[in-house]
Amino acid sequence: MSKRPIIDLRSDTVTKPTPDMWQALKNLDNSHLGDDVYGEDPTVNELEARAAKLMNKEAALLVTSGTQGNLISLLCNTHPGEEIIIEEKSHISLYEVGSAARIGGLTVKPFKSPTGVPDVNELSTMLRPRDDVHQPWTTMLAIENTHNTHGGKVIKPQELEKLAKFTKNHNMKLHIDGARIFNAAVALDSPVSRFTDQADSIMFCLSKGMACPVGSMVAGSHEFIAHARKFRKMLGGGMRQAGVIAIMGLIALEHDWRKQLATDHVHAKLLAKAIQEENEQISVTMPETNIINFSFSESAPTEEIHNTLVEKGVLGLYKGYYQRLVTHVGLSREDIEKVIEILNSTFKEYL
Asked: Same domain for 175 and 278?
């Protein structure tokens, strides 16, 4: 591999802590730490209170990852033998190792969507009859906002209201995988609580656009979080002096994340526009947030293009004809301009 500087656009999980986060960690002392399994870490408690307020929920819980947070939420909202509805390309469906079935004992019914947004009329046809002893009850709908594999698609508050009404009418729970929920809020210039207040539970990541090295949050009612704490322990997620993690989450939530994420969105649009204008053999979806999806025609030498981009120092998520680039806090405007230059020269070489 070339020794050229690497510009990493594989995901917004590759970010490093900001200088403010490191400084806050340096200033942390033992008076700000305690055993979180006993609920005695003041820094964790402060982060959880801050997260609950932002999400317009009664309480919140620090968990080790978004995958763990989603699984905990599924376990709290359902019982073994029940059925949940999820979008077929959602993170829960594709990237969480079948934990809903293996650990939760749940049947999973996926629906198709070109954007990841559920259609209430279609959902109505997917519900199991509750008076049929042969079939599991459908008790939860899980949605993803923004939607990763659909290019950071935003599910708007009006659509969320319809989904919340639908789940309540059918005695179901509504869970939001909000790994990038802050991106949704910035995209529509709305309070983040507009995307969460009608859901029964919400998970969001600190380790993506928020630049923390580890951690996610789950939020819901007091009763929900009490159950979530027990399931977190069951899954091996109980942490001790977790304030050393939580302090960076506090900085992430208190700094001007709107400005940074808005910059990420601008950078994504610049990249998408440059790709779109370059060659007719490339199909690109203009991003709403920070994820750019594009694909080549079947005649394109994708392996050679991928290898050349890596040699030139541009890392993306390359899977055959499908490509993904993700902008994040670790990228400057100069980085974006350099990536555009490398993309253009490489596409001209091969297409």
From this structure: no
